[in-house]
């Protein structure tokens, strides 16, 4: 029987860093097992590398740097992982329609890292995010979401809440010593899914009454499957009822002294006497094609040398944005219009209490290439 591996991918952004801290502080038994890793594209902001270094110090464990190309090859060819693969693709830049960078720089190194071992992968999707995130197609990899009330992936929930599993769920629940309303909990478990009672409705109703009890039922169900958790005798996160949202993530980073990546800190700018603020919304390569235009302006003004490097990648037919090359973005009149439009969009936008992040920017770090941290 293979030993189950526990892994947690660090993207260099806020959520995955906060999750690593959260695991160490709240689940030291799991922290001892976890292999922390990050995939180095060679094109990250320096603030990303700085955060990983600080986090490594807090965790007291090495964060393994995965690379898609051997150090020997990179040294011989005097290149970095992204540029190496860009050459393979004939200069074809990655885009939302062709995310070869995610596959080559993140997914392939990760799958090589874990091989065919049974793996439990911890993912930092927060409780205030309405998305599932990337789920590996390999049945040897199981994703767990400690920040959510529902820690299970969608594929697991579908199987556990299936109508043909009702009797098993009730039988397992009756073995649990609990103080919740048993009759109501059993009533919900016994209600079959249908047009008037969806899976999501049933899950919500169950979790509102007994999250821990449901987790224990799921854990027993997994014992009869090929999921990696079936090989574990216990799992301390089963007793988690805490929900972590954006505000909590910033608090965790601050309280640990690991700190918030500096690119999340908003910076003031002025357009015709009107004050606005901008920042970067996620970790990832400095030329990430998921950036909004105001983020490209931020890069141009705050890290001009990196903007110019990003511009060097563009050529006829290959640009980071389909509708506008960087040579246009950086023109003074265009920068002014982008800022004006952004100020209008953010005028009524709700900001976090910490004041360090603007919600109008997509704050989900895993929407970009960080989404491969499964």
Could you explain the architecture of this structure?
- The chain has 374 residues and is of the alpha/beta class.
- The protein folds into three domains: 164 residues, HUPs (Rossmann fold, 3-Layer(aba) Sandwich); 76 residues, no CATH class; 95 residues, no CATH class.
Write the layout of secondary structure elements.
Elements: E1 5-9, H1 14-26, H2 28-33, E2 34-39, H3 46-59, E3 63-66, H4 71-77, H5 81-88, H6 100-114, E4 119-122, E5 141-144, H7 154-160, H8 166-173, H9 182-190, H10 199-222, H11 246-255, E6 267-271, E7 274-278, H12 293-302, H13 304-313, H14 326-329, H15 332-346
Parallel strand pairs: 1-2, 1-4, 2-3, 4-5
Antiparallel strand pairs: 6-7
Helix pairs in contact: 1-3, 1-11, 7-10, 8-10, 9-10, 12-13
Instruction: Tell me the total number of β-strands.
Output: 7
Radius of gyration: 23 Å
SS element count, helices: 15
Number of domains: 3
Order of helices and strands: EHHEHEHHHEEHHHHHEEHHHH
Q: For the terminal residues, how far apart are their CA atoms?
A: 23 Å
Mean pLDDT: 90
Overall CATH class of the largest domain: Alpha Beta
| The CATH homologous superfamily of the largest domain | HUPs
Low-confidence segments, given as residue ranges, are 352-363, 370-374
Give me the side-by-side strand order of the main sheet.
Answer: 3-2-1-4-5
* Helix content class: 40-55%
Residue share in β-strands: 5-15%
The CATH topology label of the largest domain is Rossmann fold
- Main sheet: strands, sense, barrel: 5 strands, parallel
The CATH architecture name of the largest domain reads: 3-Layer(aba) Sandwich
What global shape is seen? Answer: globular
